[in-house]
Amino acid sequence: MSNLCDHWTVPKTLPLLLDARPICCPTLEDPAGISDADATALAVRLKALADPARIRLLSLLLDRLGEGASTRELAPLLALSEPTVSHHLHTLLNSGLVAKDRQGTTVYYRVVPEAIQAIARVLHLTCC
Amino acid sequence: MSNLCDHWTVPKTLPLLLDARPICCPTLEDPAGISDADATALAVRLKALADPARIRLLSLLLDRLGEGASTRELAPLLALSEPTVSHHLHTLLNSGLVAKDRQGTTVYYRVVPEAIQAIARVLHLTCC
DNA sequence: ACACAGATTCGACATATGTCAAAGCATCGG
DNA sequence: CCGATGCTTTGACATATGTCGAATCTGTGT
Fold first, then answer.
1. How many A-B residue pairs are in contact by the CB < 8 A criterion?
2. The pTM is what?
3. What is the tally of structural domains in chain A?
4. Is residue B62 part of a domain?
5. Would you say residue B1 lies in a domain?
6. Is residue A101 in some structural domain?
7. Is pLDDT at B27 greater than 80 in this prediction?
8. What kind and span of H or E run contains A53?
9. CA–CA gap between residue B124 and residue B128 (Å, rounded)
């Protein structure tokens, strides 16, 4: 379990880390506040996190930080079908919150803690 | 503007602060990870945050930390109708992210930084 | 009581989202 | 090459969400 190769697929759709710009940027005098593009980019990440099933999924993956877990393994723990779990994992993958690594026929997903930290940092900087 | 009375309405539907339990709670041996109830509670807050319009709304309110702003004032800045802005403010209010204070006929909304900090803390503790 | 200004609620609509069963892919072992 | 195993995609469906115009409500002043 510990000697898996490190072929973790980094998602391409979104950068791994946000550029940590807070929601309220004091140096900008932009009267409209944060830009629509920045707001949308942040919303995409938050949306990926904002679902009970995906939060429980992340929770389970955080318990298996080194190894990761497969769709087949996760589905019964969430009492959801495999297609549904696959769909949620896809969402998490697209937003950079998890990475995947194919090991033969089974695909292992693991959490990407830096991505969660990045969101936490944005929110923290917003209200420091 | 600075001598407004402090009648800010604290929302009743959700506690002001989360109980700051991380997504992965190492002290629990719960095989199913975070409980469904906790996951849903966290998801409700994140969902409130996970929308571009509401993020921009918070951004604008963060620029007026002391005074707050009204629906009428905010709607043109977002290029949205007043009912829509009212709806978003209601969502933010219900999740504890903003508070409101009626001053005559106009209602002033202000951000509740502690609520955002609480979410940031949960995410930070999750991946520390 | 009345009219007005501001905010919210209502009704309607289009779109997005979560879910599953069934079908389709991909990889490994004979 | 073929079957078995695990994962994903597709199609369908119900529900949730964002948006607006119109109607309604709430408080202020005359």
1. 123
2. 0.83
3. 1
4. yes
5. no
6. yes
7. no
8. helix A52-62
9. 6
Per residue in B36-70, pLDDT (tens digit) is 888 888 999 999 999 999 999 999 999 898 899 99
Asked, for residue B29, whether it belongs to a domain, the answer is: no
Side-chain half-sphere exposure of A86, counting CA atoms within 13 A = 6
Q: Report the CATH number at residue B44.
A: 1.10.10.10
- Closest-CA distance, B96 to chain A, in angstroms, reads 15
Q: What is the mean pLDDT of residues A10-32?
A: 49
Nearest CA in chain A to B58: A23
List the domain range (segments joined by +) for residue B54: 36-126
Q: What is d(CA A56, CA A51) in angstroms, rounded to the nearest whole number?
A: 9
- Nearest residue on chain A to B116, alpha-carbon basis: A123
Q: What are phi and psi of B104, to 5 degrees?
A: 70, -130
